[in-house]
Amino acid sequence: MFLQTLVTGLSIGGIYSLMAVGYSLIFSILSFSNFAHGAVIMLGAYIGLALATQLHWGLGLVVSGSVVGAGLLSVFNERVAYSVLRRRRAPSLFLMISAMGCSVFLENMVYATIGSRFYAFPEFFKREVVGVWGSSLSLLDVFAFTVSIGAIFALHLFITQTKTGIAIRAGVSDMTMCSLMGVNTDRLISVVFFLAGAFAGVAGVFLGIKYFVYPTMGWVTNKAYIAAVIGGLGSLPGALIGGLILGVLETLVSTYLSSVLRDVFSFTMLIALLIWLPNGLMGRDTEEKV
Amino acid sequence: MSRDFPLAHLLEVRDLSRSFGGIHAVEALSFGVTQGGITGLIGPNGAGKTTVFNLITGVYRPTAGTIRMNGFDLTEKRPHEIVRAGVSRTFQNIRLFNRMTCLENVMVPLFARGSSALGAFFRTPFVRKEEKQAREAALAVMDRMGLVEAAHRPASTLPYGLQRKLEIARALACGLSIQGPRLLLLDEPAAGMNDAETRELGEVILKVQKDFGVTMMLIEHHIDLVMAICTHVVVMDRGSLLAEGPPQEIRNDERVVAAYLGRPKKKRI
Amino acid sequence: MDYELNVVMLACINMIAVLGLAVFTGFTGLFSLGHAAFVGIGAYTSGVLTYHWNVPFFFALLAGVAAAGLSSLIIGIPTLRAKLRSDYFAISILGFGEALRVCLENLSVTNGARGLSVDELSNTAWILGTLAFSLLVTRNFLKSRFGALFVAIREDPIAAEMAGIDLFRMRLLSLVVSAGLCGASGVLLAHRLAFIQPVMFTLTQSTQLLASVIAGGIGSLSGPVIVSFVFTALPEMLRWLNMWRLPAYGLLLVLIMIYRPQGLLGYRELSDLFRRRPR
Predict the structure, then answer these.
(1) Which residue among B83, B97, B119 sits closest to C164, beta carbon to beta carbon?
(2) Do B50 and B26 share a domain, yes or no?
(3) Dist. CA A98–CA C256, nearest whole Å
(4) Closest residue by Cα to residue A98 from B61, B156, C261
């Protein structure tokens, strides 16, 4: 029973991690919480849904299509809603409000145009279960977990090994210096937003397959944001660990205590953790220099 | 607060250390600030001078060591409590309340304590009287600093030199309601000023000290200014105390000269 | 006529809540995604009192304000003491709102998710009277030393602390006052609509409050109040617009941040426009 809960928790945690990565990536380079990320994930799910139901593409193509679509959407979002603000060096509060606005706009545009209906993906996975450590787990969960961890690992390699990745890390530590050294920061930021959007696309499709596709499905991303904060915003390993921890603890709470209390528990844990560790588990010190 | 024995130092820093993720910004630093004087804190870039100010004023908590002001332990206190113990400061990169007028900037510290919110809701006569007193006290400080003309301008519209002065005025206002000695910390007040402006600033500092009877400590890179106005100089290098003494002694100290001009190669042991 | 009056009354009720958030976000500079929760606490506290115990409306109003103010301490004390980053604070207060919704939906005294039918007690006089009183008290409060301290904290928290301001206490005070105003708004709302439900006090409503404050202008009271009136009244007048109201709020937030971050009357009041020299 406990093992079953643990495995289920890890599989949910994997998807949380996938979404949390987007928050962390953007925070690491622009130091603000991109509350529009949830809407990008939701739109990623709709893109995937359209490809799967209208064009009858297979899972691999659906995920790739959603990755590209959500990635471009994320870049577009940055160009329209943030780039002016960041060039003006506006306070991060303004960026956050703008992000909030994007989120409200996108979510309700979907409401107004597509409607609030719940859509289901065609069945990519047979309702088959596999045994993991003596407990059963759906094929989808295993697949989602593997892809999530794999994608995060690939991102880690990209950031640490490639030239663009190194430029991103330089941008994280000092954006002004980076631009003085001749790095095109606009392009760099677009790359980061594309990566965040790409992860949102994968997460959106998985969420859509696991549950349904509907306008407010982005609400789940509040959990992902919590996961990113727990792990320490701006840290990739943090996003991974935060997602897994949150997924497991949440599943434990809903199994052994009450599923009603699950969300309350997540928020309470977040607040308690922030009071104890203001920068999360692996976040860097964001204290302002005096 | 009465004391039975004469006070050696107004501010006493003992074995102060602070590290940031393994880097020792300040390490086992001890020094004292004599009441009534102007103490200069100098040292090469990155010596940890501003960190010392941040530790004294409670922006950072020390990793080890103690800070005492007038015999009162400041080490674990929160910033506003430290201000109430008589320590106020200015910043290396000026930090004014830009959208407020100059007068309001100086009134903020005077407003930090006062009557309760209930009176404020109904704007009682007592609240009005309190505001009027704060306004007059702030104007008096500004008058002595030559800032009265600018009283109703937004702080951000002042020229650079006046902004520095305004910051000093605000720091002085912090001490107006305090009984007992006060310490004013100035973090590079002459940064970005030319020689003439720096000399003028030196006169302002001396005048402030005379007019308000505050003890001062300042971080400064203009060595001429330090030599001209300081009664005592503390030299830091790499987070630790390098030398301490009257300006004349410091000027001739070989270690200080070496720290500033580069170290002659020491023999490897 | 009845219909128009009703719309105006709802707009007035909303203005009181916006007034509250203006104190907290506009003047003290803290971002909140959960102020609708305080509206909800005011609504439910008073609703339960009048429904179950027939408490006179005036006392229910006081209780609603007090409950909202006190409950803000629950979230305010730990988060403000820890000086959380503003986005962390925003998500914490959102969590508080969520926790509240879960409680309301599962308590029997609030009749759970089905909602509570209460008496229609807030008439025009109560609403206008409370609005006038709130406006006066808030204006006085912000004109006093507290207003100056809040603005100083918004402009530069570190410099404010170094000027001797107890950051924690002042931010907490600002939160309690703003929550109290939101509570008053909730009491009036509950007894105007005669029906309350937990879903009426969630992120969507918090976002609308925030949109009014930002569009009206940071550091201004009259701006948000005017804008909130327009925001509530306009969609009611133009029914066909209703579906597009929320996307429009979102778009408006983005456009304001890009083209007019000061909003309608940022850092100024309506009265300043009629003075010869702006302050």
Answers:
(1) B83
(2) yes
(3) 8
(4) C261
Query: What are the pLDDT digits (tens) for B72-101?
Result: 899 989 999 999 999 999 999 999 999 999
A290·B21 Cβ contact <8 A: no
Separation CA B184–CA B161 (nearest Å):
18
Q: Are A29 and A172 in contact (CB under 8 A)?
A: yes
Chain B CB contacts of C267 under 8 Å are 99
Is the residue at B265 inside a domain?
A: yes
Residue identified by tokens 């297979």 is: A58
CB-CB: which of A32, A111, A263 is closest to C87?
A32
- How confident is the model over C175-186, as a mean pLDDT? 97
The mean per-residue pLDDT over the stretch B28-47 comes to 91
**Nearest-by-Cβ selection for C155 from B100, B113, B131:** B100
Which chain B residue's Cα is nearest to C219?
B99
Sorted by where each begins, the domain ranges of chain A are 2-276
Q: Which of B99, B111, B121 is closest, CB to CB, to C137?
A: B121
CA distance A9 to chain C (A): 21
ipTM associated with this complex? 0.89
Q: Tell me: do B65 and B196 sit in the same domain.
A: yes
Examine the pLDDT at B266 and tell me if it is beyond 70.
no
8 A C-beta contact, residue B218 and residue B204 = no
Do the chains contact at B50 and A290, CB–CB below 8 Å?
A: yes
**Structural domain boundaries in chain C:** 2-202
Query: What is the spatial distance between Cα A274 and Cα A280, in angstroms, rounded to a whole number?
Result: 6
Q: Which residues of B are less than 8 Å from A285 in CB distance? A: 20-21
| Binding partners of C (≥3 Cβ pairs within 8 A) | A, B
Cβ pairs bridging A and C (under 8 Å): 128
Tens digits of residue pLDDT in A99-113? 988 998 998 888 888
Structural domain ending residue among the three candidates B157, B177, B197: B177
Contacts of A109 in chain C (CB under 8 A): 247
Q: What is the pLDDT of residues A108-140, one digit of tens each?
A: 888 888 888 888 888 777 666 777 666 777 777
B126 part of contact set with chain C, CB < 8 Å: no
Site of tokens 């990536």: A25
d(CA C102, nearest CA chain A) in Å = 7
Residue span of the structural domain in which B123 resides: 101-177
Over range A227-252, report the average pLDDT. 89
Distance, CA of A49 to CA of A72 (rounded, Å): 17
Number of structural domains in chain B: 2
A2-276 classified as CATH 1.10.3470? yes
Find all residues with CB under 8 Å of A257, minimum gap 6, and list them.
A265
Do residue B155 and residue B183 come from a single domain?
A: no
pTM for this one?
0.89
